[in-house]
Every structure is written in structure tokens, then in C-alpha cells.
Amino acid sequence: MIVLADNDIILKLAQCDLLDVLPEILGCDETDVFITDAAKYQLLPKKPAKALSKCGNEETVVRLKAFLDTTQTLPAVKNEALLAQLEDIDNIDGGEKFLFAAAVEINNPLLITGDKRALKALLAHQKQLPTVFSSLQNAVVTFESAVLLAMDKFGFAIVKQKLLGSPKPDGTLRLVLRSETLEADFIECLCSYSKEVLPLLAFKPRLPLQLNQP
Fold first, then answer.
1. What is the C-alpha separation between 132 and 162, in angstroms, rounded?
2. What is the 3-state secondary structure (H, E, C) of 63-74?
3. pLDDT at 213 over 70
4. How far is residue 107's CA from residue 124's CA, in Å, rounded to a whole number?
5. Which of 100, 138, 141 is nearest to 118 (CA)?
6. In angstroms, rounded to a whole number, what is the distance separating the alpha carbons of residues 163 and 96?
7. What is the pTM of this model?
8. How far is the CA of 36 from the CAs of 76, 77, 139, 176, in angstroms?
9. Is 47 part of any domain?
10. Enclosing domain of residue 69
11. pLDDT given at position 179
12. In this predicted model, what pLDDT tens digit does every residue of 6-42 receive, in sequence order?
């Protein structure tokens, strides 16, 4: 398994203190995680003040540094024609175009991404992008499914405390997670955000049963 990780979800997981356990959650080695060649500079600006502002707190900076030191850099994509084809599709940005094309050239890829707009665009254009779709079908982990997988591994109480500690919670976390939030309600919310990209999601047997229900 080769894990292709995009910048947004790396940062989110670091802020929620779930990044260092990501390989354990996914059942892979730390050295199996690949990122783009620009990711380290984009995630951790050289100026400490900028890095701290981006991360939200010093703990996240430390987690990111430790994680990025264990990752590998993705090689250049060979299929320029596929990259050009992806350029013509709306809602798939530059980073996801590269990761989608890279997934086609890797055996047994797993894509970790927080960009559901790009995933929905892939689903909408799967007939135009058959190699990308076949490579990523049942092979994607989103932020929401990563949280569900973490809960399957460590339990709701532990994961909830980690999420509540995020210095920069996104809209999803602010909406569905409060100190009084119950496990069933939280799972229902995460599942509702995940159903729209269900054909792409990996580890379905470990995800809640209601996610597969209409």
C-alpha cells in the first residue's frame, strides 16, 4: 500500500493530534506515506511566525515536523496526457490533479485527501477518467472517514478529546462536535458528509454500517 497524502488533510490531522497514529490507523508503515515535492514548504513555512500562524499552535508545528521527516516525495507523473485531461475538469485543483494522476502509476494506492469537491468531480466524470476512477475506487480516505477509522481503533472518547483540542477547527468540526455531543450523533454527522463519495471510500468494513444504507 502506498499512501498519497494531500496538504490540507495532513494539516487537519496534525491539528487534531491524529497524524502520528495515521499509519497505525491505516495499517501501513510510516515510509509508505508519499507527499508532493512542495508539501513540506507549503505546510511549514521557513519563518517560524508564519509556520505557527498556519498550524495554530506549537504542538501542531512539532507534529508536522516529525511526520514530514518520515515521508517520501512522489516522483514526477509520467502520463502528461492524463494531467492535461485533468486540467480540463472543474473542481479538481492542481494538487489533486497530480495525486489523481500519480495514483494511476502506483500499485495498490491509497489516497488521503480532504478535498471532497475533487472527489465528487471524479465521480461525475468517471467515464472520462476510467483509469483514475478504477485506481481510486475503494481506495480513498477523507478527513471524516479517517476520524471514523480512528474511532474504530481507539474509541470515541479518546478521539473526541483530540478533535476538541484542534486550534483551528474547520466548519465540519464546529458544526458537529461540541463537548456534549453524543457518539451516535457524531457518527451520523460524519456518515452524512461521507455518503456523497461512498464509492471511493476505503476500509468500508471498518466504517459504520449506516454509511452503506440509503
1. 34
2. HHHHHHCCCEEC
3. no
4. 24
5. 100
6. 25
7. 0.93
8. 9, 11, 18, 31
9. yes
10. 1-204
11. 67
12. 999 999 999 999 999 999 999 998 889 999 988 988 9
Could you give the number of structural domains in the chain?
1
Place of cell 487537519: 12
Q: How far apart are CA 68 and CA 108, in angstroms?
A: 22
Retrieve residue 98's grid coordinates. Answer: 497530480
By residue count, the chain amounts to: 214
Q: Which has the closest alpha carbon to 73: 31, 136, 105, 12?
A: 31
Record the cell numbers describing residue 115, joined without a space.
478535498
Residues 147/172, Cβ–Cβ less than 8 Å:
no
Residue 103, pLDDT > 70, answer: yes
Are the beta carbons of 148 and 187 closer than 8 angstroms? yes
Q: Which alpha helices (H) appear in the chain, and where do they start and end?
A: 7-15, 22-26, 39-43, 48-55, 58-68, 80-87, 94-104, 116-124, 130-136, 143-154, 156-164, 171-176, 183-194
In this structure, what C-alpha cell is assigned to residue 66?
516529525
Is residue 156 situated within a structural domain?
yes
Identify whether 212 is part of a domain. Answer: no
Report the pLDDT value the prediction gives residue 49, as an integer from 0 to 100. Answer: 94
| Structural domain contains residue 209 | no
Give the count of beta carbons closer than 10 Å to the beta carbon of residue 200: 24
